[in-house]
Structure formats: structure tokens, C-alpha cells
Specification:
Blueprint: E1 9-11, H1 13-43, H2 51-76, E2 77-79, E3 94-101, E4 104-113, E5 124-126, H3 130-135, E6 143-148, E7 151-160
Parallel strand pairs: 1-2, 4-5
Antiparallel strand pairs: 3-4, 3-7, 6-7
Helix pairs in contact: 1-2
Length: 161
């Protein structure tokens, strides 16, 4: 799981609820399902060569790791509420930028969110992503550079909401 340098996990109220829901599912229904799978596999006998048993144990390890990650995120969660004035980009703001990439200009709008809620295909970018890091602290009219795998691009901040 990613986090910012202060150890805070930024979440909206909706994102917090999604984590709580996933945690409840994993600790309840999913663990019960895994217990049943393990019980059935153990009943088959020889555990050394029992593929069902090994698959269930592997899945159980994954689920337990995910539970620990989610519980840790909840402990460090900070709800994005009043993001403050829109004089500079902060987590929670929606930013419209003009992207300058190889002589082309594109307008794009991004909402800066915590890593848990990032969904770039829907314009929700993580504060920890290259775009998010570049935009944080930028002011309206400012141009920032973003290093991408295909090279550097420039973003000029048009609006901050």
C-alpha cells in the first residue's frame, strides 16, 4: 500500500466506507468461505499433495494480508473535508489543466485523491502519482513539469475548485 511521507492515508467519506465494507466482507463472509474450503480439503486426506488445500492456504494468506493492510489504512486515515481555499492545489481539489505534450495541447480535469481512491480513467488521480505530486501546491496559471515514462510533459493550471 502506498502512503504519503507523513504516513497519512487520505480518504473521502465514500472511500472510508468502501474500506470498512471490504474489511467487514473479508473478516466475515470471506473468512467463513475459506474455513469451509480448508475443512473440505483436509477431509480429503494427504495434505502434502493436496492442491485444494494449498490453494486455500494461499488464498487465506492473501486475505489475511489484505485485512492487515486495510486495518492499517483505517488507523492512519485522514478524511478529506474542507480542503481550504482554491489558491493552490491540495488533496481534494479538482483541477483543470492544459497539457502540453509534443507540441499538442489537451485540456484535462483531475480530482486529487488519496491512493486508495485513485481511478485515472475517471479523472481521479492519486496525490502520490507523478501528476498528483507535480500539481500539489501549484497555483492558477502556473506551469509544472511531469516526468512520464514517455518523457516530460508540461501542465498549466487553468482552474482549481
Amino acid at each position: 500500500m502506498t502512503q504519503d511521507l507523513t504516513g497519512v492515508v487520505y480518504l473521502t467519506e465514500e472511500g472510508l466506507q468502501k474500506i470498512k465494507d471490504e474489511l467487514a466482507f473479508l473478516k466475515g463472509e470471506k473468512q467463513e468461505e475459506l474455513a469451509n474450503k480448508l475443512q473440505a480439503a483436509i477431509a480429503q486426506g494427504d495434505l502434502k499433495e493436496n492442491a485444494d488445500y494449498h490453494a486455500a492456504k494461499e488464498e487465506q494468506g492473501f486475505v489475511e494480508g489484505r485485512i492487515k493492510d486495510l486495518e492499517d489504512s483505517l488507523r492512519r486515515a485522514k478524511i478529506i473535508e474542507d480542503v481550504g481555499p482554491a489558491d493552490k492545489v491540495r488533496v481534494g481539489h479538482t483541477v483543470t489543466v492544459v497539457e502540453f505534450d509534443e507540441g499538442e495541447e489537451y485540456e484535462a480535469t483531475y480530482t486529487i485523491v488519496g491512493a486508495h481512491e485513485a481511478d485515472p480513467s475517471n479523472g481521479r488521480i492519486s496525490n502520490e502519482s507523478p501528476f498528483g505530486r507535480a500539481l500539489l501546491g501549484a497555483k492558477k496559471g502556473q506551469t509544472v513539469a511531469v516526468q512520464t515514462p514517455s518523457g516530460q510533459i508540461q501542465l498549466r493550471v487553468q482552474t482549481i475548485k
